[in-house]
């Protein structure tokens, strides 16, 4: 049977996608430390290879995997965690499923591939128990507290002090002290819960997240002379941090990015505006000139 050129091109594209994903899953399986995770990843790699062979039976042509795609998805999973990498890849597969449905009227195997892809998604939801996701609550605590407290504090200090260097110095002192306090609180609260999480690791995740956030938010005041321009850059940096973190959580936990982002961004900007007003009022009432 001779396939129409456009149909053949679609099938070759799907065929290339399947062999690419098979290679990705095989590489990730080889790195998995859990025997269960390794088995599931190997099973999925085998299914993707079977899908590739199903498309090949129609195209009668071999295709090579997308080496750049393999490299990219492999390192996304290694850097940001297996859960994030796989679920991000699953989002792409969902778009492929919609295309498969268009081919199912002409290619009988397309419907079977759709069923397999749905099974993959269900398996991946319960695939992993990653440390970074177990401690995401500690990361959220450090990140959210640093964003809300420090953006608000920097906004208030900007108008009260009107000196980029003084604001940077004050922000670093307050921020680093608060990081130690939050780490200690994280340790004690986790220890009191007596759950599966290790108190020391919880403290490290909370404190480290806080410190990194402090450095990123104070940095504009160290490199820019105008404190108001620095404040604007700090608020932009805060929104970028909120967006990046909430995108990660939305993918890893299948939650709404829009809801998470608007909630955290609204709190952060609201506190900053209120703190700026407090700084203005305090300076006017106390009559302090710096």
Counting H and I runs of at least 4 residues, what is the number of helices?
A: 11
Distance between the termini: 84 Å
Sum up the overall morphology in one term.
elongated
Which sheet architecture does the biggest sheet show? none
Q: How many independent structural domains?
A: 2
Helix-strand sequence: HHHHHHHHHHH
- What is the average of the pLDDT values? 76
Poorly predicted regions are none
How large is the radius of gyration? Answer: 25 Å
Estimate percent helicity.
over 70%
Give the beta-strand count: 0
- Find the structural class using helix and strand composition: mainly alpha
Proportion in β-strands: under 5%
Walkthrough of the structure:
The protein has helices spanning 5-31, 35-59, 67-80, 82-103, 109-125, 131-134, 136-161, 164-193, 199-223, 227-252, 257-286. It is 85% helix and 0% strand. The chain is an all-alpha fold and 290 residues long.
Descriptive tags:
290 residues, mainly alpha, 2 domains, 11 helices, 85% helix, 0% strand, elongated
Layout of helices and strands, plus pairs?
Layout: H1 5-31, H2 35-59, H3 67-80, H4 82-103, H5 109-125, H6 131-134, H7 136-161, H8 164-193, H9 199-223, H10 227-252, H11 257-286
